[in-house]
Amino acid sequence: MSPRGRGPNETFGPWSDVITVLTKDNQTIDPAHCASVNNVGKETVVDFEKAGRVVAKNEYEFGKTAWEIKIKRQSAHAAPVDSYSFLKIGVASKAGKSANILGKLFNYALNTESITIKVFLDIDNRSMTVLTGNDKDSEVFNNLPPGPLFPAFQNKISKDSFSSLKLHVKFDLPYTLNESKDLG
């Protein structure tokens, strides 16, 4: 007989059934008609060939996460003739072509040097902060739609633009937003 007078095949205690099991898949971006996507180690390289949008494959449903986008210097965009080249960085509430992106619009056309952009997403508080490295502007988005939310990027270029945009993206970075330091 086992302790407490129970038989050898009896169990006791506060047990519950497993409801769900979560795994952390590496975040990826599906290739789209407007861009090719390559995963190089922990970095995803999105090479836009024309205007359009790409959305990450895996959604975020709760918690906090961050990702970083690097746009390396592109001499083709330093000319004033091509001053309309924008990148919208943010989240979409669903994947696919009809995904409406909520986020910051950044004019990379006049960039003369590389820039790093950081996105901090807090699903539980339904907020997102986008920090651009070369200017002190940060943009905070509150009242985001409830999750799941997908990281998303949209390249908006002028009709006469022949240059491409290449993003170097690192997902699932630690959420290290220090609002008093980073926003002030």
Structure notes:
The chain has 184 residues and is mainly β. The protein has a single domain, classed as Jelly Rolls (Sandwich). It contains one helix and eleven strands, in the order E-E-E-E-E-E-E-E-E-E-E-H. Strand 7 and strand 8 form a beta hairpin. It starts with 34 loop residues before the first strand and ends with a helix.
Essential attributes:
seven-stranded antiparallel beta sheet, disordered C terminus, Jelly Rolls, four-stranded antiparallel beta sheet, elongated, 1 helix, mainly beta, about 180 residues
SSE topology sketch:
Elements: E1 35-40, E2 43-48, E3 52-55, E4 64-71, E5 85-92, E6 101-107, E7 115-122, E8 127-132, E9 138-141, E10 150-157, E11 165-173, H1 179-182
Antiparallel strand pairs: 1-2, 2-11, 3-10, 4-7, 4-11, 5-6, 5-10, 7-8, 8-9
**What share of the residues does DSSP label as strand, in percent?**
35-45%
State mean pLDDT (0 to 100 scale).
Answer: 78
Question: How would you write the strand order of the largest sheet?
Answer: 1-2-11-4-7-8-9
CATH class term: Mainly Beta
Number of domains: 1
What can be said about the biggest beta sheet?
7 strands, antiparallel
Coarse shape: elongated
Per CATH, the superfamily is SPRY domain
